Amino acid sequence: DSGVTQTPKHLITATGQRVTLRCSPRSGDLSVYWYQQSLDQGLQFLIQYYNGEERAKGNILERFSAQQFPDLHSELNLSSLELGDSALYFCASSPAGSRGTQYFGPGTRLLVL
Amino acid sequence: GENVEQHPSTLSVQEGDSAVIKCTYSDSASNYFPWYKQELGKGPQLIIDIRSNVGEKKDQRIAVTLNKTAKHFSLHITETQPEDSAVYFCAASLIRNQFYFGTGTSLTVIP
Questions:
Q1: Which of A22, A46, A79, B91 is buried most, with the most CB atoms less than 10 Å from its CB?
Q2: Binary contact (B101, A2; C-beta < 8 A)
Q3: How many Å apart are CA B38 and CA B47, to the nearest integer?
Q4: What's the pLDDT band for B2 if we cut at 50, 70, 90?
Q5: Pairing of strands A10-13, A42-50
Q6: Nearest CA distance, A16 vs chain B (angstrom)
C-alpha cells in the first residue's frame, strides 16, 4: 500500500458526460501528479501540482482540468467524454524536497460507453 | 521532450533464471531513473531507482545499471520467482519533474 488513495475505483459513464476523479496523496506529500494509462499509449503524464499550484503540464486535453485543494487532495475533471478517454487514471505523490520518488495510487478505471 | 524506449515488450523465463530489461533515453539532462512493477489491477510500485551520479545499485535480487554516456539503463532480476511475474516500467526524469515512461515489459516467470 503506497499511502495514496484514489476514488472511485471504477467509473462507467456515457459519451458527453463529465466525471471527477479524486486523489488523496500520502500524508505530508506536497506534489501530486496525474497520469493516464491506456493500452496503446502506455503511461502518459497529464499534470502536476505542488502545494496547490500547477507546476507542469503534459499531454492533457483542454476538456480535462485539475486542481489541488488546501488540504492537498486533488481532483481531475474530465468533461465531454469520448470513447477514447476510457483508460486507467493514476495519481502519484511525492514529498517536499523529494529526490524524485513518486508513489502511485491504485488508479481509477474509467469506461466511457 | 524526453523519449524512453524499453525492450523487450514481453519476456518469459524459467523460475530461477535471470531476467534483464533494457531502456534507452534521449535527453542527456535526465538524472533520475526509477523502475516500477505493476501487477494486474494495481498501480505501479517503485522497486528500485538510480540517480545519474551512480552507475549501479542493488537491492537483494534486483539491480539497476546506468550508462550515462550511452544513455541506457537496465533492470536485472536474479533467481526469478513466480511472484516476479508482472509488467515492469522504466522511466526517466529530471528530479521533481514529470516522468517519461517506457512502454512496459510483461515478464512471465514459468514455474
A1: B91
A2: no
A3: 10
A4: confident
A5: unpaired
A6: 26
